[in-house]
Amino acid sequence: MTQLLISVTDVNEAQIALTHGADLIDLKDPHQGALGALPVNTIQDVVNFVIINRAGPEQYTSATIGDLPMQADLIAKQVLTIANTKVDFVKIGFFQSEDYQSCLDALKPITQHGVKLIAVLFAELAYPEHLIDDIKAAGFYGLMLDTAQKNGGTFMDYYTHEQMTLFAARVKGHEMAFGLAGSLNIQHIEKVSVYNPTYIGFRGGVSESNQRKLSLDATKIKAIRTML
């Protein structure tokens, strides 16, 4: 069954998400960009809260490292800082770059020590054909397709059905977790579900007035949980 990811900003929102059926509590600051990072102490507070209050072993946490340039030392340092909170998954945005491999080389020793990394690709960007293979070779746990511009557009505005089917098959062919997100709401679930993602992520679509910078709306989370 496809899992439900809800992005939260603090313990109060984590409680709302847990209570209403989120499988993955994702820590992200929507005021700081596509993958804005929360303060480490906030991440730690939420991770501790989820560990104590989750309903079962199938509820997890993830956290983003922020909208960082693809600089190997910078990214590796921030990944280790976030991983030290004991969050289950660390998410890394693959922003525009001429050189992804140096970052992957710096991250491979981290994955070999058991840190579970999720690569976030953006629908608006063009990537090298072999990047998914390279991400797998670096030991990443999963890959997520998101949007960089939070303007209401979704990955479906950039990928045809045939392209998405191929993309999903490549990720799952590597036995990586596969996530889909980016301005999604309840009306998108039927279309998104055909790609059989491991999880679907929401922020704006479960927030007041569908605005990702506003507070979570418990009624919307419950409705999406019911559909999934």
Can you summarize this structure?
By secondary structure, the protein is an alpha/beta fold. It contains 8 helices and 8 strands; from the N terminus they run E-H-E-H-E-H-E-H-E-H-E-H-E-H-E-H.
Q: How would you describe what is shown here?
A:
This protein has 228 residues and is α/β, with parallel strands linked by helices. It has one domain: Copper homeostasis (CutC) domain (TIM Barrel, Alpha-Beta Barrel), CATH 3.20.20.380. The protein is 36% helix and 17% strand. The chain contains eight helices and eight strands, in the order βαβαβαβαβαβαβαβα. An eight-stranded parallel β-barrel has the order 1-2-3-4-5-6-7-8, surrounded by six helices. Helix 1 packs parallel to helix 2 and helix 3 runs parallel beside helix 4. It is globular, with a radius of gyration of 16 Å. It starts with a strand and ends with a helix. The model has no long low-confidence stretch (mean pLDDT 95).
